[in-house]
Amino acid sequence: MYFAAKGTEIFGGRGWIVLLRGLIAVALGVLGLLERRRVNLTNVVLLFGIYAIVHGILSITAAIGGRGQRGCTLLGIEGVIGLWAGGMTLRTSHPAPMAFVLWLWAIATGILRIAEAIRLRKEIPGDVWLALSGVATVLLGLMLFSRRIVGGVIGPAVLIAIPAVIWGIFEILLGWELRAVPRSHSTG
Question: What CATH number is given to the structural domain containing 119?
Answer without folding.
Answer: 1.25.40
